[in-house]
Amino acid sequence: MLIPTDQRRKIHEYLFNEGVCVAKKDFECIHEDLQVKNLYVIKAMQSLNSKGFVKTQFVWQYYYYTLTDEGVEYLRDWLYLPSAVSPATHQQARPAAEGKTNKAVDAQAQLA
């Protein structure tokens, strides 16, 4: 399917930034997050899925797409991004600052 380049770029940027994408199985509505036709989102993801760049799960009339490691590399090349940039789902959580403590842990330590 022919998808306008600016809209395909918007879809790929969103997928790379988030690492996941959800699309309702409604070909006539507009995607809530992207403001692009939902048909374009589904077909772009279908293309990436056939190449092995995303994994697809379909549950209760919603498509759930998850970016694979090969997909990350492909989108980095397609979007001309440096290798230091990675999707939100591929980043590790930062450790908590040492000065801050959890009140629940402190309360349990006092009881012991």
List keywords for this structure.
single chain, 112 residues, alpha+beta, Arc Repressor Mutant, subunit A, three-stranded antiparallel sheet, 3 strands, globular
Characterize the structure shown.
The protein is built from 4 helices and 3 strands, in the order αβαββαα. With 112 residues, it is of the alpha+beta class. The protein is globular. Helix content is 42%, strand content 15%. α1 packs across α3. The chain has a single domain (5-111), classed as Winged helix-like DNA-binding domain superfamily/Winged helix DNA-binding domain (Arc Repressor Mutant, subunit A, Orthogonal Bundle). A hairpin with a 2-residue loop joins β2 (54-59) and β3. It has helices spanning 5-18, 38-50, 69-79, 103-111; strands spanning 20-24, 54-59, 62-67. It has a 3-stranded antiparallel sheet. The longest helix is centred in the first third of the chain and has 14 residues, at 5-18. The model has no long low-confidence stretch (mean pLDDT 85).
Produce a short descriptive summary.
The chain is of the alpha+beta class and 112 residues long.
Question: Helices, strands, pairings?
Answer:
Elements: H1 5-18, E1 20-24, H2 38-50, E2 54-59, E3 62-67, H3 69-79, H4 103-111
Antiparallel strand pairs: 1-3, 2-3
Helix pairs in contact: 1-3
GO molecular function: RNA binding; structural constituent of ribosome
Organism: Starmerella bacillaris (Yeast)
Family: Belongs to the eukaryotic ribosomal protein eS10 family.
